[in-house]
Amino acid sequence: MFESEEKAKLVKKETNKLRKIYRDIDPPKKKNVEKLIDNAAWMAVSLEELRAQIDVEGYEETYTNGANQTGKKDSTAVKNYNTIIKNYNATIKLLMDQLPQTQQQTGDKLAKFLMHKK
Questions:
Q1: Are 96 and 88 in contact (CB under 8 A)?
Q2: Which end of the chain offers a freer environment for a tag, N or C, measured as fewer CB atoms within 10 Å?
Q3: Distance CA 1, CA 60 (A)
Q4: Cα–Cα distance measured from residue 66 to residue 64, given in angstroms and rounded to the nearest whole number
């Protein structure tokens, strides 16, 4: 896990990276985009943090339910990762939708290229 100061630096770095992409966006959209960028940056760093935790602790954890009942279940980190990755993908999609049409087309072409690459 990141120390809070280290996490704040990583979030700021990710935020700055995203802000460069959206620096020329229309002023009416800018306020909403800023909120999306802040959330996306935090989620990106949190996902890195959770991945590291999962790599160390594993995907499953043992539970005890009552005196004799035990079993395995998805770890809390895995559940949190799955929730955040869905929200992150939705946020990135919203951000992509805010790009001017020419930049969206470039992103679409890149995505198609990457999906068909073997």
A1: no
A2: C
A3: 18
A4: 6
CA atoms within 13 A on the CB side of 101: 0
Expressed in angstroms, the distance from the first to the final Cα of the chain is: 35
Calpha distance 7→2 (Å, rounded): 6
The 3-class SS string of 68-110 reads CEEEEEECHHHHHHHHHHHHHHHHHHHHHHHCCHHHHHHHHHH
The CB density around residue 29, as the number of other CB atoms within 10 Å, is 14
DSSP-derived secondary structure letter, 64: E
Question: What domain range is 23 assigned to?
Answer: 4-116
Kindly report, residue by residue over 94-105, the tens digit of the pLDDT: 999 988 776 655
23-69 pLDDT, tens digit per residue, is: 888 888 888 899 999 999 999 999 999 999 999 999 999 988 877 88
Report which DSSP code applies to 60. Answer: E
Q: Which of 95, 113, 117 is nearest to 104 (CA)?
A: 95
The answer to whether the beta carbons of residues 73 and 61 sit under 8 Å apart is yes
